[in-house]
Amino acid sequence: MAPLRRPQMVLCDLDGTLVDSVPDLTYCVDTMLERLGRGPRGEAAVRTWVGNGLERLVRRALVGALEGEPEASEFDRAYPIFLELYAEHTFERATLYPGVREGLDFLKAAGYPLGLVTNKAARFTGPLLRHLGLYEDFGIVISGDTLVACKPDPLPLLHAARHFGVDPTASLMIGDSVSDVRAARAAKFGIICTSYGYNHGLDIRDSAPDAVIDSLSELAGMLAAAR
Length: 227
Ligand SMILES: O=C(O)COP(=O)(O)O
Ligand SMILES: [Mg+2]
Known about the structure:
CATH architecture of the largest domain: 3-Layer(aba) Sandwich
Strand order of the largest sheet: 5-4-1-6-7-8
Largest sheet: 6 strands, parallel
Function: Specifically catalyzes the dephosphorylation of 2-phosphoglycolate. Is involved in the dissimilation of the intracellular 2-phosphoglycolate formed during the DNA repair of 3'-phosphoglycolate ends, a major class of DNA lesions induced by oxidative stress.
Number of helices: 9
Strand content: 5-15%
Organism: Marichromatium bheemlicum
Pfam family, one: Hydrolase
GO molecular function: phosphoglycolate phosphatase activity
CATH class of the largest domain: Alpha Beta
Helix content: 40-55%
Structural class: alpha/beta
CATH superfamily of the largest domain: HAD superfamily/HAD-like
Low-confidence stretches: none
Radius of gyration: 17 Å
Bound molecules: 2-phosphoglycolic acid, magnesium ion
CATH topology of the largest domain: Rossmann fold
Oligomer: single chain
């Protein structure tokens, strides 16, 4: 792997990077399906469908696959049910991954401006971050519906770089999926990925991020070695 550039700013993805949100998402997907008179999909399937926003998750759950479109009428019935359920169960089962608190504390102590860029809708991002005690860690929070485009579009990353007055080429994204890698590459950010996140069932190494970590606690050593 190429040596990492020392960043002047760091952005974190949310689901699959900081937080395991799949247990709540699975509960809401399966309860939605039950209300529609259909059987559950289960956590293993839902884990492969997270990362492109909640609307896409519901479409995937309805067709039972990563690609494909449900009937418009079916989606129109299902989506409001899901949104109502997720509003009530945003963080009942959500947990921080091991090493996240340590990694964020290191980044803050080292003085990196920190931002959060997720494809989750803003009405859920804020409550989830607050519940987990993460909200105050970030100088900017950009959700999937904050701007006109979301990851893999580079727009949210470039918006954050502008917000902090940092050159994108001196910026680092930490994520878990191919959308994070694509957005980072298009924005000319560096990109480190977690090995434990959600990447549609594929190994994130196939997307060739600059580095792969098993825990955010590895960031201290990795950034100390960066030039
Ligand atoms: O797809 C989502 O809802 C959120 O995914 P992200 O936090 O990994 O961007
Ligand atoms: Mg993610």
